[in-house]
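Sequence in, structure out.
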Amino acid sequence: MTDEQALIAALKQRDSAALEAVFAAHADRIYRLGMNLLHDEQQADNVVQDTFLTLIEHIDQFEGRSSLSTWLYRVGHNHCLTQLRRVRPNLELDSLDEPDIAPVNFTPWSAPEEMVFSSEIAGELERAIATLSPALRAVFVMRDIEEFATGETADILGISESAVKVRLHRARLLLREQLAPYFGEQFD
């Protein structure tokens, strides 16, 4: 029996120590996912709470076809989508009807390492990420910020690996387009 299988068995037995361990291991990442997709602290807190309530209520239905962490992030992502739909009921979250991306403002730039970690640049990046559609933003956050593997991201989002790759490519191109003027000004 693996550690994860033992943990799942303990969760199914309603072991509070197991729940605390899972919460400690995953709550921060689920919160960051909520913040990156929803841009609201209270909604991100609600996503964490709802995700762990779902874990408690539905752990008996967990079949083990994916890892527990993948399942939790999928649940968290679904709660984020629910929040987005409440705010904008007609929003098509899985649409790939993104515009054809041909960068217009393709300023070559590279940032010195000390600038990459500045709060000003972090703020510009956050603003640019917020302009992405929910479908592109979810893939970008999971792959490039949370560093999930392509397969894990596909499992969490319920899409194919090739769709993850296409969306990630589109998101990166759009972000580069959004950030090119800023970095062009910084390094002229």
